[in-house]
Each structure stands twice: as C-alpha cells, then as structure tokens.
C-alpha cells in the first residue's frame, strides 16, 4: 500500500497531561474515522461538539471536532481534528480506537509536514521555517523562522528559477533557429541580460554574512579558568538557579554543564567547565581535557580568575575575555575595561552579583555584533547557502560560455535551475518544455 493511501494520526498538541489535547488525522480514511467516532460528519471547518465513542459504542470523551476536506487543508488531504481532554487515559483509549480502524496508523515524525510539502502546500524552505519556528526559543529566532515560513526565500527562489527557465527557453529557441541569420542573436541578448541581473541578485544574498544560519543554533560561551575561581558560582548567577555545585574545594566540577539563556532575544548556551590545572586524578584529567576542547570550539571564552596578573590560555581563533572575579574580596571596582591584547577585562563578583549587569550588557553587544543584521538575512541553513552558491556558479559559467556555443549556455542554465529546484524541493524538467512550447511558438 502506498504511504499516501494510509491515514495517519498523532497527538499534535503539547505534553500530557494538559487541559486540551489535539489529535490530528490526515488521509483518505480521516472522514470515515471521524464519522465512526463522532456518529456524524460535522460541517466543514466548523467546530462541533460531539461525544466520541469506540467500536463497541462505549463513550470515549466529550470533545470538539473539526473536519477539513482536502485539498483545502493543511496537508492537502482530508484532515480531521479531535480536541479532547488532555489526560493520558483519554489519549491512550482514543489511540487504541484509532489503531483498530482499517487503513489508520500512527504518524512518523514530521509526516504531516512532509505530506503538506508533497501535496504542494508548502515548499522545502517553508517546511524548514516551520521546523525552526517550532523549535524557536527566543524572540529573534521566532521572527527569523516566521520570515522563512512566510516564504521570503522561497518566493525569491521561485522568481529566480522562472527567470532562468525563461532565459534557457530563449537560448533553446536560438538553437532551433540557428540557421536563420539574426534570430539567435536577437534571442541571446535578452537572455544574457536576464542572467546577469539574476546573478547580481543571488550574489548579493550570498554576500550577506552567514550569521542568520547560526541564529538557529545560538552562540556558545564557555566559562573556563583555574580551579576555585568562581566559575560555577558565575554559572548559577547567569542561570538564576542552582545548576552547578559550588564548593570551596578545588576540582568540584568534573564534567561540562550547559545552560541555554535568552539574552535580549539572542540564544546563548553557557557552559561551565572543570578547572584547568595539572592533576593526577584520571577523572579530573578527563574533565580538564573536555574543558580545553570545548573552549577551543566555542564562540567566546570567559576566562575567570581572581588574580589580576593571571593570563588566559590561548584558544586559537576563539575570542577570550578576562573576567576578574571576587571584587567583593579584593575591593576592586566593578567595570568593563577596554580591550588589552584584544581581550576585554570585566571585573565582577560572582558571589554578590556586583558587575554582572555590565557583563550581561557586554555579552548582548557581542551577540549583536556576532549575529549581525539577521533581520535581513534570507539564508538560515547551510543547505540553502550551498544550493544558492551552486546556482551562482552555474550562472557565471553560462555567461563565460558565450563564445563556446548556445548548447553549453543552455546546459549551465539547466544546472542552475536544477539547484534552485532542489532548494525549493521542486525539480521538474517539464517546466522548461512548457515554457518553450507556450512562449516561443514562432510562426505556429
């Protein structure tokens, strides 16, 4: 049986128990299942109260049901929604009833969205935006994902692909009329002009910094330094809860402790590490190794020390800030100093919280500079950047092939259109044929 001949169902709301739980069905048997449970078919797209019953006629729950006949539905198929009370017992009983119906099965991860994509309801960039929106933790991630879900990149890619296909159609027509004097030249000039304009637009999108892609995963900040410098205390202050054990004994932290933070809408993961020192303890040695490795791969290292003369370990190309802790003991003033050897110095007291406001403001500024103008970024995934880069390379090759023949230009344009088709998830060679026969029937 083809997967689309099967009707899928799943819990589409949050974790149980909850006040309301939403169970969705999609597929050719959704209507039959809804009628069997509710006893009647509700009017399309109108919320209707119904007492759900199993096959034996025993009541399952007092629910609200919705019916969305395809193709006017989220997946393009017949879709039913069951809004039931969100107890584990209700869902377990309802799922047992659904599983006993012919043609129904539990959905696989992402299968509702995949069916929406395969039925032309969304393109691949919009599907990626939907996934990002579901997993967005901060306001800036939400806004970026929503732009993607609204199809800003997909709309541009569709426009670019249409333009490339039309340019290729001009070139193909020129090949067909190669023996008719000036006809190929008259077709070639507008095609090359269109290609040059498209290349400029795509390269301007690629030229934008790729920080929007990192906004999905966030910034990684590692707290490192010698033992007993107050790293775990600082971690707890930033997290505003006890996430790390604080002890006067050196070497308390043995493993990495990660906490996600929302700093002015920027997603930041802060990692507390083991104190870096020479030790004979094999467990602490592994902790130190992990600390050094994580710091070397971080976006920023906060090197914590209570010694004004202490130097930070080099971390390759990773920027390092020197955090001078325990100013409540040393009597120093809380402040953020200008960079020395490209390493800003921040004076704080992790125990009292003095100076933490300045540190947080500095971290927000770092994140703002790091992510750049993500509000204008169209590319949010490496897959998208790679395929746009492939498109630009093919367009450049097509322009360079002017003296090598129309066939080579047409082939490079085909490659460019294929790359954009992959970006959208829509690859169909019939597009080119349709344009050629519809738009360039010269004399026919």
| Number of helical elements | 15
> Nearest-angstrom radius of gyration?
30 Å
**Shape summary:** flat
- Oligomer category: single chain
Average pLDDT number: 79
Secondary structure layout plus pairing:
Blueprint (H helix, E strand, L loop, with lengths): L6 E5 L6 E9 L3 H9 L9 E6 L5 E10 L10 E8 L1 H12 L4 E3 L4 H8 L5 H11 L4 H11 L2 H25 L6 H25 L3 H5 L3 E6 L6 H9 L17 E7 L2 E7 L9 H15 L3 E6 L14 E5 L2 H4 L4 E6 L2 E5 L8 H16 L10 H19 L5 H19 L5 H10 L5
Parallel strand pairs: 1-6, 7-9, 7-10, 10-11, 11-13
Antiparallel strand pairs: 1-2, 2-5, 3-4, 4-5, 8-9, 12-13
Helix pairs in contact: 4-5, 6-7, 6-14, 6-15, 7-13, 13-14
What does this structure look like?
45% of the residues lie in helices and 19% in strands. With 444 residues, the chain is α/β, with parallel strands linked by helices. The strands form two sheets. The chain has a seven-stranded mixed β-sheet, sandwiched between helices. A hairpin with a 2-residue loop joins β8 and β9. The chain is flat, with a radius of gyration of 30 Å. The C terminus is likely disordered.
Keywords:
444 residues; 45% helix; single chain; alpha/beta; flat; seven-stranded mixed beta sheet
Short description:
With 444 residues, the protein is an alpha/beta fold. It is built from 15 helices and 13 strands.
């Amino acid at each position: 049986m083809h997967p689309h001949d099967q009707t899928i169902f799943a819990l589409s709301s949050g974790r149980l128990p909850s006040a309301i739980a939403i169970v969705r069905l999609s597929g050719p048997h959704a209507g039959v299942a809804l009628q069997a449970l509710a006893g009647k078919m509700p009017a399309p797209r109108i919320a209707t109260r119904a007492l759900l019953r199993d096959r034996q006629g025993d009541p399952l729950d007092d629910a609200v049901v919705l019916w969305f006949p395809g193709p006017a539905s989220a997946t393009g198929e017949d879709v039913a929604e069951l809004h039931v009370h969100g107890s584990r017992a209700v869902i377990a009983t309802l799922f047992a009833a659904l599983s006993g119906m012919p043609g129904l099965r539990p959905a696989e991860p992402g299968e509702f969205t995949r069916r929406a994509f395969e039925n032309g309801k969304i393109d691949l960039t919009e599907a990626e935006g939907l996934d990002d929106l579901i997993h967005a933790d901060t306001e800036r991630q939400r806004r970026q994902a929503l732009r993607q879900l609204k199809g800003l990149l997909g709309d541009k890619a569709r426009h670019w692909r249409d333009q490339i296909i039309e340019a290729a159609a001009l070139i193909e027509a020129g090949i067909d009329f190669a023996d008719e004097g000036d006809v190929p030249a008259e077709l070639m000039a507008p095609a090359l002009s269109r290609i040059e304009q498209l290349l400029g637009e795509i390269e301007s999108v690629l030229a934008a910094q790729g920080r929007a892609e990192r906004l999905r995963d966030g910034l990684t900040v590692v707290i490192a330094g010698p033992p007993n410098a107050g790293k775990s205390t600082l971690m707890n202050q930033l997290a505003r809860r006890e996430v790390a054990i604080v002890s006067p004994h050196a070497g308390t932290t043995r493993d990495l402790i990660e906490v996600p933070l929302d700093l002015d809408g920027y997603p930041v993961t802060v990692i507390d590490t083991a104190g870096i020192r020479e030790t004979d303890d094999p467990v602490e040695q592994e902790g130190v190794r992990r600390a050094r490795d994580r710091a070397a791969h971080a976006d920023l290292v906060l090197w914590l020390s209570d010694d004004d003369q202490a130097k930070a370990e080099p971390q390759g190309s990773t920027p390092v800030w020197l955090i001078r802790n325990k100013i409540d003991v040393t009597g120093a003033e809380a402040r953020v100093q200008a960079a020395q050897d490209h390493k800003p110095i921040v004076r704080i007291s992790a125990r009292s919280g003095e100076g933490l406001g300045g540190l947080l403001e500095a971290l927000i500024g770092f994140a703002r500079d790091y992510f750049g103008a993500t509000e204008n970024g169209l590319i949010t995934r490496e897959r998208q950047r790679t395929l746009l880069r492939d498109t630009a390379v093919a367009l450049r090759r097509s322009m360079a092939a002017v003296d090598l023949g129309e066939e080579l230009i047409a082939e490079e344009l085909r490659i460019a259109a294929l790359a954009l088709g992959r970006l959208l998830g829509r690859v169909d060679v019939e597009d080119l044929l349709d344009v050629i026969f519809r738009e360039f029937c010269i004399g026919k």
